Amino acid sequence: MKKISLKVVVLLIGITTISCSNSKMAFNLNEIERSRVLKNAEDYLNESPETVTATNCVRSAGTRHDFYSEGDYWWPDEKNLEGPYIRKDGLTNPANFTSHREALIRFSQISGALASAYILTNDKKYSEKLALHLKAWFVNQDTKMNPNLLYAQAIKGVATGRGIGIIDTVHLVEVTKAIHAIENSSALSKTYLEVIKSWFSNYLHWITTHEYGTAERDNGNNHSVCWTMQVAAFADLIGDEKTMDFCRNFYKNTLLPNQMEKDGSFPLELKRTKPYGYSLFNLDAMTSICQILSTKKDNLFTYTSNDGKNLELGLKFMFPYIENKTDWPFQHDVMYWDEWPVRQSSLLFGGIAYKNKKYIKLWKSLNANFTTPEIVRNMPVRNPILWVLK
Hints:
This protein has 390 residues and is mostly helical. Helix content is 51%, strand content 6%.
């Protein structure tokens, strides 16, 4: 699918020239990312595939091929240790099972780095290594993951799985970008590529029709945004234009008007115990939706709702607090306050879309090598070279 012309320019020459306030600013995304990407890719060349079948939790109601995770903010009840878990919003229980989520994030990190390195160098060692990981997750009968999330974010004594768990596969979005990057290489045969796309087709059907999927779609906060980002990316991979159109309309008619306040803030995120981190996360996810779905004829970056809300308003709201977090007027996050912000993708995508050199400059200045698990988990866009591929 064709995207806005600026992306095509980046793909062809690696340079985007932006006019801002009657001045010119040229930035070379490939050069900015090159050393980081190639270092990560070289490290990942030594990593073997590891899927959900590598670990197991006795509390899972699924099979060894089923993704399983447990709700982050659920803890044993001190008054009834053998009873159902209770919720402590914003406080992560370190004893919960996270191995499958960690394996999926690792897979996403490896995929993004190897595919980006392939774009930069055209060296088949990167695409061939990536193909091994893709086959392990989506093709090989012994190791592949089932295309559903029936057992994600389970709660001991409460639920064997929940629709809210679908957010765990937000890390597959960049995997789809990696597949785009190598699908015309010799690393994946036509047969393997068809099997991989079939997996995503099946998963797309599941998250758009199963009751867990519809519940996540209608959740109302960042979960609805991340559901849409996933659906858009999976539909883009398999060429499902009808579903992509649905996502565009859902963004315009539901996500943007219902989640953004007139000042550009996200009230539902500000109510949480980690309002700063969630606001950044939601803004990144919304800009990612626009990056995936925008076309010359339908540019979501410039779309404005009837009541005057648009994505640029959201960026204008958050920019001062990314630039200087000490000015944040709301509650500080109960955990990981010091670790934010990092190299937020909303600044890059918004900077390109709105030709705003201040956004690009701030993006460049932020940490791109974040390693705190909580931050990594909430940063599904780690390799922006992939996002300007098409």
